[in-house]
Design brief:
This protein is of the alpha/beta class. Helices cover about 35% and strands about 20% of the residues.
Length: about 450
């Protein structure tokens, strides 16, 4: 069991354990200790999103890192994938992101990238936790050996310059009208700048962060607002990013939502046609719709599934030598271009497909026909193993017998919030809605729900 790290770093309500300034201080010292070597002063990149609590976590990290004699390069608000990119391009030993992604502003998180721009493997996180819990492992510096910190003012410009190279030379965004919702988050500068400099007509929303409005009624958590703007303005597409811009939900020209599964399908088919899909394989999670599997299979493309979390998708991609994968939620990983999920990289790849083929997004997304699927999240009071909950186990077995080969049930705890996710896939929306309701009742019986109606 890990005390601090979940599926995507350390996360929780700001000023509640484990998301305290003391944790940030100890993490800074642990990261600096892990990456410092005799005769080498480690350099650690630190970036954040726009949450109010970032103002207290950033100096705590800086204090921890510099107290051990390592140096800090601070970027200010920058998308998580931008921090991963700059960690490698600036030859840093590690990068630390202060963000809770799609969570409400009251939460925050800490995640660490290695010098290669990839999220740390489990064993490295275990090592960090052991060091955080044993301060004696961290040798404090004194005098001139103390670390130094500096802020770079052009972090967004460096990241955008890199992204612009990913649009194919033959693709021109002149005349393309798009709605871009930055969720009042980390991409509020980078996203409008990127698409404007590439020639598009950009209608930017969610670009006025005040520290408390990140993800609130905007971005990928509320894509209906983007759909409304697309229809009202006659835009060709809408892009809804989350708070740290590592994922996106697209809206086509008809105002219809295009999720990560549809993007996986359309981009995989296009990559195969260009002989750019390594091993004719796409990696996705257990949450991806069976319609994705059918669409890929019909084109001779294999689908591999992993546990939930983009880090596990990336891990399997690296193990198998695959270059494309992602999650239904909109984490899309193009390993030829990025080391982690990147909403802006994904948007550029979709634009490459749309404009090179001269087809609207609605037509491209139609390559995948979804099976009815319902996902609900319920906030729970405790987190015992799901297979130890008798009522839930019994009703899950009943549901699986009812669905047979025509559907499936997936139950899991969120890795970032005190919630249980219930996903049911089947042939009929009414049937799966009834199954989700019965499973939620079982969950309430076994562990109790903070809000029985939440989802």
């Amino acid at each position: 069991m890990r005390r601090y790290f979940g599926t995507d770093g350390i996360r929780g309500r700001a000023n509640d354990d484990p998301m305290t300034v003391e944790t940030a201080l100890r993490l800074g010292r642990a990261v600096a200790t892990l990456y410092s070597k005799p005769g080498h002063r480690a350099r650690i990149l630190v970036g954040k999103d726009t949450r109010l609590s970032g103002y207290m976590f950033e100096p705590a990290l800086v204090a921890g890192i510099t107290s051990t004699g390592a140096d800090v390069i601070a970027t200010g608000p920058l998308p998580t994938p931008g921090i991963a990119f700059l960690t490698t391009s600036m030859r840093c030993d590690a990068g630390i992101v202060i963000s809770a992604s799609h969570n409400p502003f009251e939460d925050n998180g800490l995640k660490v990238f290695g010098s290669d721009g990839f999220k740390l493997p489990d064993e490295k996180e275990h090592e960090l936790e052991a060091t955080m819990d044993n301060p004696a492992r961290c040798k404090l510096a004194h005098g001139t050996d103390l670390g130094r910190a500096r802020r770079i003012e052009d972090a967004n410009g460096r990241y955008v310059t890199h992204l612009k190279t990913l649009l194919r030379p033959e693709v021109d965004l002149e005349g393309v009208k798009m709605v871009v919702d930055c969720a009042n988050g980390a991409a509020y500068k980078a996203a409008p700048l990127l698409f404007t400099e590439l020639g598009a007509s950009v209608i930017a929303t969610g670009v006025s962060p005040d520290g408390t409005n990140i993800n609130r009624d905007c971005g990928s958590m509320h894509p209906s607002h983007v759909a409304e703007r697309v229809l009202a303005t006659g835009a060709q597409l809408g892009i809804a990013l989350d708070g740290d811009a590592d994922r996106l939900i697209l809206i086509d020209e008809k105002g219809q939502e295009v999720d990560g599964d549809a993007v996986l399908a359309m981009c995989a088919l296009e990559m195969k046609s260009r002989d750019r899909l390594a091993h004719n394989t796409v990696v996705a999670t257990i949450m991806s719709n069976v319609g994705l599997q059918r669409a890929l299979s019909s084109a001779g493309i294999r689908l591999e599934r992993t546990g939930v979390g983009d880090r596990y998708v990336v891990q399997r991609m690296r193990e198998g030598g695959f270059t494309f994968g992602g999650e239904q939620s909109g984490h899309l990983i193009f390993l030829d271009h990025a080391t982690t999920g990147d909403g802006l990289v994904a948007a550029l790849q979709v634009l490459n497909v749309m404009l090179s083929q001269g087809r609207p997004l609605s037509e491209l997304a139609a390559v995948m026909q979804r099976s009815p699927q319902l996902l609900r999240s319920y906030r729970v009071r405790s987190r015992p193993p799901l297979d130890s909950l008798p009522t839930l186990v019994q009703r899950t077995r009943e549901a699986e017998r009812q669905l047979g080969d025509d559907g499936r049930v997936v139950l899991r705890y969120s890795g970032t919030e005190p919630k249980v996710r219930i996903m049911v896939e089947g042939p009929d929306e009414a049937i799966i809605a009834d199954i989700v309701h019965r499973l939620a009742e079982a969950l309430a019986t076994d562990v109790g729900l903070d809000d029985p109606g939440s989802h």
